[in-house]
């Protein structure tokens, strides 16, 4: 996994609550056996018209946000299906971080495994950052994971919570399976004591 | 120290738990299907890792499989490739597979309990959010992503933070025509689709105790639709009777010993939960969703809501989006909404008791000429049982299509999809935009309500249906 330490990027606001993973990556793209190639289908049904042209109404198609790498969205982002294709699509599109008032549990876990940082901030902060991103052409934010802080260009900082282990994994691009396997002896002991 | 059932199962499965580390949880059973596993197996190969416990891993094909004649070749070549890949992976890593031609094939959450793989007190995971279904037997079961599938394959463990506990207590007697599906839809309507975030829900109370195991599965299945990590129901005599004799369940003295162990699992008298909610079964009516998530739901006697009545600006916008997508006007009575399609199936409602309930409504009646309706059994075993009881004939005589087992139009990964603009009464679990086909409009209901809706061509209050 790619490490995440610090990121500065353009911001795109997606003004919707309860964005489900069926919207992030619709089911017709789940038939692939590879881990790559999902970015172009991110938000497919919102992003493209029936004839395949970009939907001009959808925010990702607004040229102002063409190079965004930070997504701001409404509460409970990533609800529904456990498909990890959702964070794969977000990451392969170019997103490094998602800011929202809250996230669905499985989606949030899946993000951490893929080097994407899900950042929960109070709803009023999200609303204000989202407004800034709409009002200010080329609006950028800086994310400092070590400091657990989202920093605006005027220097305002918003701190966020993250579990110590998730933080450690992201900062170091840790292979979690390798981490667990260092305790192979504990697993073997458990299996001996709890035969199935 | 009084403990909840979740805490007991959690503690019994800790391989390693020290204060400054994320706990390592042992996984007793890992269920695998074709859609979310290929990249996990590929990861094992790339890192030269093996499957630690193929004997605790079970695979089937359900999401992609066609539900039409299985003797014909699969026309979707990408789906076929994904199924082939699962078969190759199961061969390479020595994992038992119930493939498309197996008499045991079916939706992973239907066959697990059916085969006696799902047992009380177990930790069960699967790369599918509806893994919460298995909690109906008193297991701790939850959905995981593909990276976690790889983790479990390689280590038989997961790195997991403990969840909060949430008791949802339903006492009283369910009124006539009100089902387990209506219980869970009413709960989601009450707490919202993020109301269970961060928590494992335990369903308790006399109305839950009175449910059959299959009905309990319907309730636990949709825990994830309230955002909960898992849903569970304490095992009792109903559970033990259900398990007895199942293929992989313990037998004879082993079964008796297992029951003694399972009896220790229920939450201790006086244990406390982090959150609680109480509902009265008598207050629950048949439910119909009107919007684009399962929390957008109302009584069948209700109306499509007005965005102006929503409590927050976000909800108002979300409701406006939903009504535009669903092509519904505020104030429309639910029973005035006509449908084009009816789908009876999915891991929520495709078991034999669901099909019996729907068949009882369909018997001697005809599907409306404006409606195309299909029944998709949850497994080949359910299909065989239904056919032995003549339910296939009842459905076909009424004008329903009778299909092979699979996930089918719950998510429309196979050819079973809605066309743009079509409206469907569905016994599945998600009414998200495009879920059953791009531009399709889904209304979630119980099997009885779905069958009655097929007959009348519009939503109908099953309590008044005759």
How would you describe this protein?
The complex is a heterodimer of chains A (196) and B (466). Chain A is α/β, with parallel strands linked by helices and 196 residues long. Chain A has helices at 21-24, 44-47, 85-93, 105-112, 123-135, 164-172, 176-181, 184-193, and strands at residues 6-14, 68-73, 97-100, 117-120, 140-144, 149-151, 157-159. Chain A is built from eight helices and seven strands. Chain A has a seven-stranded mixed sheet with strand order 4-3-2-1-5-6-7. Chain A is globular, with a radius of gyration of 18 Å. Chain B has 466 residues and is α/β, with parallel strands linked by helices. Chain B is built from 15 helices and 19 strands. Chain B has helices spanning 5-12, 38-46, 77-93, 108-114, 146-155, 180-191, 206-209, 213-221, 237-243, 252-262, 313-326, 352-362, 380-388, 391-398, 447-456; strands spanning 14-16, 24-26, 29-32, 57-60, 97-98, 123-126, 140-143, 157-159, 164-171, 199-204, 230-232, 275-280, 287-289, 297-299, 341-344, 372-375, 400-402, 423-426, 441-444. In chain B, α6 runs parallel beside α8 and α12 (352-362) runs parallel beside α15. The chains are: A alpha/beta (196), B alpha/beta (466). At the A-B interface, α4, α7 and α8 of A face α2, α3, α5 and α11 of B.
Key attributes of the depicted protein:
heterodimer, A: 196 residues, alpha/beta, seven-stranded mixed beta sheet, 8 helices, B: 466 residues, five-stranded parallel beta sheet, 15 helices, globular
Q: How would you summarize this macromolecular structure in one to three sentences?
A:
The complex is a heterodimer of chains A (196) and B (466). Chain A is of the alpha/beta class and 196 residues long.
